[in-house]
Amino acid sequence: MLTESAALSGTRLLLGVSGGIAAYKSAELVRRARTAGAQVRVVMTAAAEHFVGAATFQALSGNPVRTGLWDPAAEAAMGHIELARWATQVLVAPASADFLARYAHGFGDDLLTTLLLATTASSAVAPAMNQQMWANPATIANVDTLRRRGIAIFGPAAGDQACGEVGMGRMLEPEEQVQALIGLQVGDRLAGRRVVVSAGPTFEDLDPVRFIGNRSSGRMGFAVAEQAALMGADVILVAGPTSLATPPRVHRVDVRSAEEMMRGVLDNLDGADIYVGAAAVADYRPVAPRPTKIKKQAEVIELKLIRNPDILATIAERRERPFLVGFAAETDNVLHYARGKLEAKRLDMIAANQVGQLGSGFDSTDNELTLLWPDGQLALPKASKQELARRLLEQVMLRLEGAER
Questions:
Q1: Residue 36 maps to which CATH number?
Q2: pLDDT (mean) for 193-215
Q3: Label partner for 149 (CA 20 to 30 A): which of 39, 218, 259, 288?
Q4: Quick check: 38 and 13 in contact, CB under 8 A?
């Protein structure tokens, strides 16, 4: 299995940087790609040099930066062909509207476009531009052309833009691009599969102002959805209240309460191959939420609660059901309680983790899990939630494919 620090081990990444304000993020992309194990060389267009200096990329990559075709020392040995052959993966980030147009039409008028014509490596682009430029029919046509040629398109995302507008066109963040690169290495293991994921907390209203909730951030479930999409799956993410951004190529359904989450999951379960119940669903809800705000009067108040429906147990009762993965977040006797939940709910797998400790579980970007299934278990040591999600899905596929043989 790959660890997060070695997920891109063996990858020789040629990073092209075209002109655009998002070029400043590409410096962080170099650092993160190297942390993930890749060797990195950088090629900059003339326009990119107006935004970030070549010395920055040289320091971060540990390699000289190439900026033009007419470098006598490099081109004496046909340096552009050597670079094209060296790369196992090419990524252009940012990819401006002008660059996409020249790439789609086969231009070879600078070092970067010449390299792209000469390489046989897998290639990807991370578009970055004003929202109107992204929506322009010419840009849409150019991107479609590249996609048909097998070029991977990373993003873009929606949000605030340097020009002051808001909309689609922001370059994906460096960490998202590294995850997308890792996805290309993993391949389409889940292609043709439909995966439903639930994530985040549920809020059970006491009155129009207050609710019962929990500390789940949703990061683990969102990581599972993100990695499943990178592995080629059709992904439905049923999300409780959270501020996390929707992962690329994931269809999101927002819910609030446990009952809403139940409906959101069941409404999207037809044809699903895998259901991952990563949400921290409230076990109980108020019997009768107040229609008006509860006033602070009595020293003690009592809340009458009723049990919420169990989503995993409900799905397990179906004659035709997907591969079921549950989560068990426990403060003590983690494996004992997780094994009991696995058996009682007739799950195919459960991911157990200890919560209440600093640095893992709720409110953390890292975690550690133990996967349990009816006749075995596997400990996954502490890593990013993206890495754990990927390894979880790999184990799911091993068991799902074995059952289908």
A1: 3.40.50.1950
A2: 92
A3: 39
A4: yes
Q: Check residue 306 and give its pLDDT.
A: 93
- Write the secondary structure of the chain as one string of H (helix), E (strand) and C (coil): CCCHHHCCCCCEEEEEECCCCCHHHHHHHHHHHHHCCCEEEEEECCCHHHCCCHHHHHHHHCCCCECCCCCHHHHCCCHHHHHHHHCCEEEEEEECHHHHHHHHCCCCCCHHHHHHHHCCCEEEEEECCCHHHHHCHHHHHHHHHHHHCCCEECCCEEEECCCCCEEEEECCCHHHHHHHHHHHHHCCCCCCCEEEEEECECCEECCCCCEECCCCCCHHHHHHHHHHHHCCCEEEEEECCCCCCCCCCEEEEECCCHHHHHHHHHHCCCCCCEEEECCECCCEEECCCCCCCCCCCCCCCCCCEEECCCHHHHHHCCCCCCEEEEEEEECCCHHHHHHHHHHHCCCCEEEEEECCCCCCCCCCCEEEEEEEECCEEEEEEEEEHHHHHHHHHHHHHHHHHHHHC
Whole-number Å distance between alpha carbons of 88 and 95: 19
Same domain, 179 and 270: no
Residues 113 and 9 in one domain: yes
Q: Which one of 186, 218, 234 terminates a domain?
A: 186
Closest CA to 196 of 156, 234, 160: 234
Whether residues 373 and 250 share a domain: the answer is yes
pLDDT tens readout for residues 140-182 = 999 999 999 989 999 898 877 676 777 788 899 998 899 888 8
Asked if pLDDT for residue 88 goes beyond 60, the answer is yes
CA 48 to chain centre: 27
- Total domains present in the chain: 2
Q: How many angstroms separate the CA atoms of 181 and 153, rounded? A: 11
Cβ atoms of 227 and 273 within 8 Å: the answer is: no
* Confidence (pLDDT) at 71: 63
Q: pTM for this structure?
A: 0.67
Least confident of 211-215, 272-276, 278-282: 211-215
Q: Which active-site residues does the annotation give?
A: 163
| Contact predicate 342/363, CB 8 Å | no
Token pair recorded at residue 141: 């046509």
